[in-house]
Amino acid sequence: MTPSNKPIYFVSYAHEDRDWRTLLFERSIGTTVGDCLVWSDDQLRGGDHWRDEIRQQLGRCSVAVLLVSPHFLASSFIAQDELPEILARAALPAGDARRLRVVAIPVGDGQQALAASTDPQHRRLAELQYALATHPGLPARPRDCQPATLEAVRQLVQHELQAAVDPLGADLQQRLARRFTGLQWLGEGSRAQVYQARDTQLNRTVAIKALRDLRQREAFRGDVLAALRTSGEPSFVMVYDAEFGASSSWCVVQHVQGQSLRSLLRAWAQPGASQPDADQLRQLFIKLARALERAHCLGLRYGNLKPSNIMVDAQFEPFILPAGRQPQPGQVAQDLPELLARVALAQQAGAPADDAAAEDLAYLVPEQAVGLEQADDGELADQYMLGLLAWEMATGALPQRLTNPRRLAEDGLDAFAPLPPVRSRRRLFPERFDTLLQTMAQADPAARLQPDPARRGSAMAAVLAEPDLHDDLSLVLVRDSWRRCTRAADFDSRFFSEFYARLVQRKRAAAKLLARIQGPDRWQRQHRMLKQAVSLLIAFSQRQADRDEPTLLSHVAASHAGMPAGLYAPFGELLVDMVCGHADADPAQSIAACDPVCQHRDTARRLRGHWQRVLAPGIDYLTRAELLRDAEMTASLRAREGVDLYLDLGARAPGGPVNRP
Description:
- The structure is a single chain.
- With 661 residues, the protein is of the alpha+beta class.
- It has four domains: 3-165, Rossmann fold (3-Layer(aba) Sandwich); 175-255, Phosphorylase Kinase, domain 1 (2-Layer Sandwich); 276-470, Transferase(Phosphotransferase) domain 1 (Transferase(Phosphotransferase), domain 1); 491-641, Globin-like, CATH 1.10.490.
- It contains 25 helices and 13 strands.
- It has helices at 18-24, 50-60, 70-74, 76-90, 110-116, 120-126, 147-165, 167-175, 217-230, 261-268, 278-297, 331-348, 355-362, 366-369, 378-395, 408-411, 431-440, 458-464, 473-487, 491-506, 508-514, 520-542, 554-559, 568-580, 601-641; strands at 9-12, 28-31, 34-39, 63-68, 101-106, 180-188, 192-199, 204-211, 239-244, 249-254, 258-260, 310-313, 318-320.
- The termini are far apart.
- Residues 180-464 form the Protein kinase domain.
């Protein structure tokens, strides 16, 4: 149960017993899922349509608390308007989201009156799971109740309410009460629920994972023992303690102060929420890939890499939780019908599948779903799930590849639809990274990056070898942008001619330089030089740490000796305008974007910033190189003439006389 679905407790009671209602219940009740609202008809105000309001609140509630007294059993309103709904929903199957949990508390002679009643509704009430025999009787009047008895009843009621909303947490709370206090629900996965607690012995906050289905105890035990081997490794949580009993299985692990990746993805999907940039996602991906590479080198396969099994702290550091590791061959295919039944049941009720079921279906490994996996295919399964996880982080959408599960038996791996490129949903995303994710998430395991049988961890090492994962994001996006521009069929004929024409419009000094270029062959050479100069400017940004002469731009600077230093900045500005587009009040001055992704205004704005950042170091280098040559020439002239000289870059031609004031 998620915090967003915290239950409402509906208290049904006769008005003669309102004092008991006040004594036993505050406006909210603390449970492992947080404080939950208690509603009863004493919250009605004058003018409310009280009968409709009561029915509405009863329809919303998840737990009904009944103060069963003779007055309760004799109330015609309770018998006609409340009990039918309560009993009908209480009788629904355990898996039905509408099922109502009932806690009945005897008051006065209520237990005896219920036992003696022949009313069919009263007989059904007596047979409920949380019937009267689970509670000591309360006297008819609160003033006749001893304080110790009242406190004992409150604690019993608290426990029953806790068991009603979270039976696993209630049991865990009782078992671990000597050492761990303050149990609070954190989340759930396909196999276990996670709680936060305080370790009173070591005075630290921990997380406790409790197994829901004890039939999976041996698999859970294998998960935890495997987790001990990565405990303390980067991006894996520490394992502190565990128990694998016949009636309860749990493990105590490092508590990560943060949120599950699933919670973050849910928050990012909200309207108006700020999204992480591609660089943050790359860094998260790299850390997870390195963690898996290390696990593979140790001979371990994780096998259940999903957002709910990853915690992310305030510094955006990921931590992989020790649960749901590599399934046995055939296990996924064997468990699949139950998963599909859960999803179908939710659809029939007109509701989405619960988060755990939806995530399990989205992250099914194709070869496991159709029963084709081999015992040593774990590296390929981890690669597939990491690819899906990165795709979901980048797009904000749960992967929907198995749209028709009934086709699995007939179509096998082909039942899994191709994964759409990230760039179909997020235009400004590194192309090679996108291609890498497409390869990792291939339905056919033979089409993924293949591990070297002689070297553990080699497949994940191949993933991490992609250069665009490690280069500066702006540099990666600009390289992609320039490749898209140069791939255009008319690039050489349109781009360069327009570029030079625009440059002359903006800077008169350029016209004198370009006038020297005569004939088609010279212009073709100039086009090649310009294309090479842009590539070198981009490469220069990549190698900013290497500034020893000669640099990548030394040849460009030498070949353009005499070019006014003031032309380099306009050159860079025009290049960005040509790639990203430029809107001007004068249509003649507007420039259509060469990069097709810049047809979208916001994408063009963001890509423009990346281009400016990448070009800036090279433009600055070339400008300073020319200024240095000008300064040397000026110093030489000063020495000869002994007068102050001023450089007018916009007026003189290269090699022409220096203008004096």
